[in-house]
Design brief:
Elements: E1 4-6, E2 9-11, E3 15-17, H1 27-35, E4 39-43, H2 60-78, E5 82-88, H3 94-103, E6 108-112, E7 130-135, H4 138-152, E8 159-162, E9 168-169, H5 184-202, E10 208-211, H6 217-225, E11 230-233, H7 235-238, H8 247-254, E12 261-265, E13 271-275, H9 278-284, H10 310-318, H11 342-362
Parallel strand pairs: 3-11, 4-5, 5-6, 6-7, 7-8, 8-10, 10-11
Antiparallel strand pairs: 1-2, 9-13, 12-13
Helix pairs in contact: 1-2, 2-3, 4-5, 6-11
Bound molecules: flavin mononucleotide.
Length: 363
Amino acid sequence: MEPFYLGNLRVPVPIVQGGMGVGISLSGLSAAVANMGGIGVISSVAIGLTGNSPSHSDSYAERNISRLREEIRKARAATRGILGVNIMTVVSDFSEMVRTSIEEGIDILFCGAGLPLNLPSYLGNGPNPRLVPIVSSARAASIISQKWYQNYGYVPDGFVVEGPNAGGHLGFKPQAVDDPGNSLDHILSDVLEVTKDLEAKHKRPVPVIAAGGIFSGEDAFHYMQQGANAVQLGTRFAATEECDASLPFKMAFVNAQESQIKVIKSPVGLPGRALFNNFLKEALNGDRRPSICKHRCIKTCNPKTTLFCIAEALISASKGEFSNGFAFSGSKAGLVTHISTVKQVFETLKTEYCKAKSLAGKR
Ligand SMILES: Cc1cc2nc3c(=O)[nH]c(=O)nc-3n(C[C@H](O)[C@H](O)[C@H](O)COP(=O)(O)O)c2cc1C
């Protein structure tokens, strides 16, 4: 597997661990991935609800700020590798999460779930992170590139292209998730056209990271043959020893059946791929409506009409309390057979990748 560059940052192994909230990818998982030469990513969403240390503030945003600081510092202390923070554009404390990550000297900001149109406005004169939007269409990649250049003279440092087989929130209309025209192969090739134009215009590389349903080294080889510079994996890293969630959360992936993996409507206003369970059945029946909105975490969630509180459901699941929550999951969760270490995942991916490459060479 070839190293790749994000701006002037050399990434030794072209594997990115997708940010996973709430409380799934924190310092433990991200540092382990960074130590293997990939990019480890801390998920910032509702991070203040994670951890056991008593909070010094009642404010949701302040708790998120201090927990994010804490997790970035813990990860930094555990690795000299490359670290990113994932920030969903629809969260109510987007500005606070971006500013805190920059103050803590994070290497990369990954922003999806909406178009992060004002992201470059947060950059200062100090050491700045590379900015990598997560997109699910060439149109989104074009709009972001145009607005960033027009308003800030900034060219994206790269893109994550996330297809419909990813876990978590999907950047598609519900009816478009299964449209073969939206397969990762298709949208990757469309986004590569956009980045080729950007590279020609601005005379600098704009690497592309493919994501969504990538599980094996053979999958990684396939997308890198199509032109991706790297791949992003979520589900495969959820069932690792270093993953920051509880053991029952990880075991939900080991025990996942193909038939359980479903696309649901999330309170965020986007479809989301998840492991369907009794909680979701009851929630979608209208039996889990929250009586109050405690956090106001998502700009697009209407607490009066939402069928369930997404922050509470995800934090419960991370602790293994599936009677009150559920796990997001990519389409390949059925392939998880056991809990591995991050090192084992990297070694397996590399071996499978090399095998796929040598087979392709013989054809
Ligand atoms: C449990 C879980 C939580 C996730 N949380 C987030 C998140 O907070 N922000 C985000 O941008 N993507 C999130 N994702 C998507 C991942 O970052 C990743 O892009 C995706 O899972 C890749 O597909 P795969 O799981 O098939 O490998 C989540 C995915 C999973 C499985």
